[in-house]
C-alpha cells in the first residue's frame, strides 16, 4: 500500500510546516489541495508560472525525501463556484486555461495523477444540459492529461452532479478513460451501504480515506462505519497500485472541524496498514 496525506488536513500551519508534519507522521507522499481562495496554494497564482511554483515546492519536498501523490484542483472556493459544467462559456474557457497550467505544474512536480470535481446541478439549466457539459469537460480533461502522461480522476461528492454510485457509474460509462478519486465517506454519510459503493472500486485510481458514518461526513476512527478492512482486501485482490490518501480535513462545513486530525490520521494510518497486511481483526 502506498500512503499519502493531504496537505489540507492541516490548513492552519504554513505549508512548509505541513510537509514536515506529514513526514513526522511517517508518510512520504503528499496530496496537494490547490483550491481557489481556500488552500495554501491557489490555482490562479500557480497558473501565472507553473514551473517556478513547482521548482520551489520540489526543493522543500526533496529536502524531506517526499513526493507528490496527487494534485487536487478546484477552480472555485466551493464546488458551485466556477464549476466544471457551468453554463457560462467564458468561465469554462478560463477553467480550461487553468487546467492546462495545472497539468504543467503536475508534470513539473513529477506527479502522475490529477484530480478535479465533476460539476454540480445548476438551477437555471436543464439536467440534460448540465450532464452533457459535465461529460464534455471531463472528456476534455481526460485527453489533456493523457497527452501529458497523467491520469485524470474526478471525486463524486455530496452536492455534486454525481452524488451517488449510480450516477457516478453513469458518468464513467459516458466518459471513456475517466477514473475516480474515490471517497466512500460521501456515500456513507447519506446512509448508503458499503456494498452499494463497491462497484466503483475498479474505477479508482486514487483513494481518499477518513472516518465517516451516517450523518457524519467526517468521523473519528472509533465512530467510523466505512469498512476499510474489506476495501483494502478488495484492493489487494484487484492489484490496485494507486495511492491511499489519509484525508482528514479541517473546515467549517458539515462539522469537519470536530476531530483531532493528528491523532485520527495516526489511528487510521495504522488501521489501513494492518488491513493491507492482511489483518483479520474484524471489519471497520
Description:
This protein is α/β, with parallel strands linked by helices. The protein has a single domain, classed as TIM Barrel (Alpha-Beta Barrel). The chain is built from 10 helices and 8 strands. The protein has helices spanning 15-24, 43-46, 50-63, 89-108, 127-147, 165-174, 185-188, 194-197, 228-237, 261-276, and strands at residues 2-6, 29-35, 67-74, 113-116, 151-154, 179-182, 204-209, 243-246. An 8-stranded parallel β-barrel has the order 1-2-3-4-5-6-7-8, surrounded by 5 helices. α9 (228-237) links the parallel β7 (204-209) and β8 (243-246). The protein is globular, with a radius of gyration of 18 Å.
Amino acid at each position: 500500500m502506498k500512503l499519502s496525506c493531504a496537505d489540507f488536513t492541516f490548513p492552519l500551519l504554513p505549508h512548509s510546516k505541513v510537509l514536515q508534519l506529514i513526514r513526522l507522521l511517517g508518510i512520504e507522499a503528499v496530496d496537494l489541495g490547490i483550491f481557489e481562495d481556500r488552500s495554501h496554494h491557489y490555482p490562479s497564482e500557480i497558473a501565472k508560472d507553473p514551473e517556478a511554483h513547482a521548482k520551489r515546492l520540489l526543493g522543500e519536498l526533496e529536502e524531506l525525501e517526499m513526493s507528490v501523490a496527487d494534485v487536487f484542483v478546484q477552480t472555485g472556493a466551493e464546488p458551485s463556484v466556477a464549476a466544471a459544467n457551468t453554463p457560462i462559456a467564458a468561465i469554462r474557457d478560463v477553467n480550461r486555461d487553468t487546467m492546462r497550467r495545472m497539468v504543467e505544474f503536475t508534470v513539473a512536480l513529477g506527479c502522475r495523477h490529477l484530480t478535479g470535481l465533476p460539476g454540480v446541478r445548476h438551477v437555471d439549466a436543464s439536467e440534460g444540459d448540465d450532464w452533457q457539459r459535465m461529460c464534455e469537460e471531463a472528456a476534455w480533461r481526460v485527453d489533456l492529461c493523457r497527452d501529458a502522461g497523467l491520469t485524470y480522476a474526478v471525486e463524486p461528492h455530496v452536492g455534486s452532479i454525481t452524488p451517488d454510485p449510480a450516477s457516478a457509474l453513469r458518468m464513467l460509462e459516458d466518459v471513456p478513460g475517466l477514473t475516480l478519486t474515490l471517497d466512500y465517506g460521501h456515500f456513507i454519510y447519506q446512509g448508503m451501504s458499503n456494498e452499494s459503493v463497491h462497484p466503483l472500486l475498479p474505477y479508482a485510481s486514487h483513494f481518499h480515506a477518513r472516518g465517516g458514518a451516517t450523518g457524519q461526513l467526517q468521523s473519528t476512527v472509533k465512530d467510523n462505519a466505512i469498512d476499510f478492512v474489506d476495501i483494502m482486501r478488495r484492493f489487494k485482490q484487484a492489484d490496485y497500485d494507486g495511492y491511499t490518501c489519509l484525508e482528514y480535513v479541517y473546515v467549517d462545513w458539515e462539522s469537519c472541524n470536530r476531530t483531532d486530525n493528528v491523532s485520527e490520521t495516526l489511528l487510521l494510518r495504522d488501521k489501513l496498514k494492518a488491513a493491507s497486511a492482511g489483518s483479520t481483526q474484524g471489519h471497520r
